[in-house]
Amino acid sequence: MKTILLPTDFSENSWNAIVYALEMHKDEPCHFFVFNSYAPHMSAPSTAVSSARASEVIQEIAKKESAQGLETIMKRIKEYDTNPTHTFEIISSYDYIVSSIISAIEKYKVDMVVMGTKGASGLKEVMIGSTTANIIEKVKCPVIAVPENAVFKGLNEIAFATDFSFYYNEDNINLIKYYAKKQEATIRVVHVLTASKLSPEKEKVREYLDGLLNGVPKHYHYLTDVSVDVGMRVFSQSREIDLLCMVNKQRSFFERLFLKSSIGEVSFHTQTPLLVLHKKNN
């Protein structure tokens, strides 16, 4: 049974990501962990006694709000999802969001994280905020980042963005193939050329990848005279891509695709959900 972590800050964006995960996995048994973390309070300077007491009070309030919020979310889930093969468990964690998610993944043997691209801050632009970007960077399991208004309507077109810089782990490719087969989708391998053609080394990686993708419909697309981020955005929009996949390795390709290092945010100006896998050392 697949185990999926659903982080929530009780915003509508995080609820939408929960619904997306439920719909995406509606035909398979899953155990979902509905997860909320409330961060340790950073006290203002004061006397030791008053500061400690204030921190305790604030922590208790945050703990109660987390428990009540999770209870409300579970009521919504039970009203929405009646699949008897879906089971749920709530987790309330007193820790910072990134470290608490990493701990939960290890403790509960989580297979995948599905979360919204932004929280309750009310930002109007469709973007992956710094929290989601940090989680994508630091966790070792697959992460699906769901834009605010994305609705799961099945997968017809799956794009796999690659720079052909290393040999992909079979487990990562198998996950993409799993969704492609389950949804009868076509995989479109997308590469932004930086020269007139692939180098001999990259051609070897492409051939290896082609072997891993055997058994599913696939096409290769080579973009020229365009930056990686613009090329992927235009490709996703023009092809009406349902899921954009990539393998993150030491930030480099992920950073070139999306990262705005000056403000620590990842701009993602489409409504395309993003599946980020992680390079595994063989």
From TrEMBL:
Residues 1-147 form the UspA domain. It comes from the Bacteria. SUPFAM superfamilies: Adenine nucleotide alpha hydrolases-like. Pfam families: Usp. InterPro entries: Rossmann-like_a/b/a_fold (IPR014729), Universal_stress_UspA (IPR006015), UspA (IPR006016). PANTHER family: STRESS RESPONSE PROTEIN NHAX, UNIVERSAL STRESS PROTEIN UP12. Belongs to the universal stress protein A family. This is UspA domain-containing protein. It comes from Imtechella halotolerans K1.
